[in-house]
């Protein structure tokens, strides 16, 4: 259980809670107090070099109303959750693209096999290094970032007076070597989870006897997606002061408060039906006796081009991770080995 996504989709829960509730509360009581920057003004803080000829894809990014936010859930120096949230103000649609922590990301002078995973970047290169890595893998510019610490899950769920979920199976797992020691014992069925139990629910991967989600991490992600949808809907009814006061204890961001409130106004009217969650297109591969998630360049390119309404260009290669054919298996080859 060393490599759990310990606060996975709860990161976006916290962020959307802050932004959306801020829109309702702050705008009502301070309508004339602040001139909010537009999303375009925020996006323009990251500019594409206008002195060069732009490809159709680069031009689409430059003219887009999308803002891309890197959401990072971390425990101390480790990044257990890496997600890229892309919000289109005009269409009022949000796309959440998950980058698995075991994603293969090779860096110069980092030869240790563990250092070839993207979750190792933050510890050695900080948030700026992780931004570069995610931009490299996803082909998308990152305009802002938000990091959330380990305790956010417990605090936010308790603020919501618990989250009702349908636990898909009996969850029983013990890890005396975790810090603190981990004991999961959650019965199957519909129930309301408090903060501590919700954290264990989100952390669960498999039982001590090896049983668990038939689809592995994919099954767990689907469960987490259901969790976040229920949580966000419930969060929209929270009072502003409680959310703001608790959220900012756990957030580190390069958003200014004014920018965050400006983004919040753009979220007014957002429907949960317009929230789409995905994982980067990938395949798995064991190398040096360690399991990696290898990005599939063609699939990622198709996803991003569709996001920006651009026809794919066969000639564009934005430097995505590539591994020689003789070191990888075919994409369609199943790799049933477990993460170390």
- What is the N-to-C succession of helices and strands? HHHEEEHEHEEEEHHHEHEEEH
What percentage of the residues does DSSP assign to strands (E)? 15-25%
* Radius of gyration using CA atoms only: 20 Å
Runs with pLDDT <50, length 5+?
A: 1-14, 17-36, 314-340
* Major beta sheet, strand line-up: 9-4-1-2-3-10
Please give the count of helices. Answer: 10
Mean pLDDT: 76
Largest sheet: 6 strands, mixed
Shape by Cα distribution = globular
Helix content: 25-40%
Structural class: alpha+beta
State the separation between the terminal residues, measured CA to CA: 9 Å
Number of strands: 12
Please give a structural write-up.
It is a single chain. The chain is α+β, with helices and mostly antiparallel strands and 340 residues long. Helices cover 34% and strands 21% of the residues. It has 10 helices and 12 strands. It has helices at residues 10-29, 39-43, 56-63, 121-138, 152-159, 195-203, 217-235, 240-247, 257-267, 297-307, and strands at 66-75, 78-88, 93-98, 144-148, 163-167, 171-175, 182-186, 189-193, 251-253, 275-279, 282-287, 290-295. The strands form 4 sheets. Strands 9-4-1-2-3-10 form a 6-stranded mixed sheet, sandwiched between helices. Strands 5-8 form a two-stranded antiparallel sheet. Strand 11 and strand 12 (290-295) form a beta hairpin. The longest helix has 20 residues, at 10-29. It is globular. The protein starts with 9 loop residues before the first helix and ends in a 33-residue tail after the last helix. Mean pLDDT is 76; it is low at 1-14, 17-36 and 314-340.
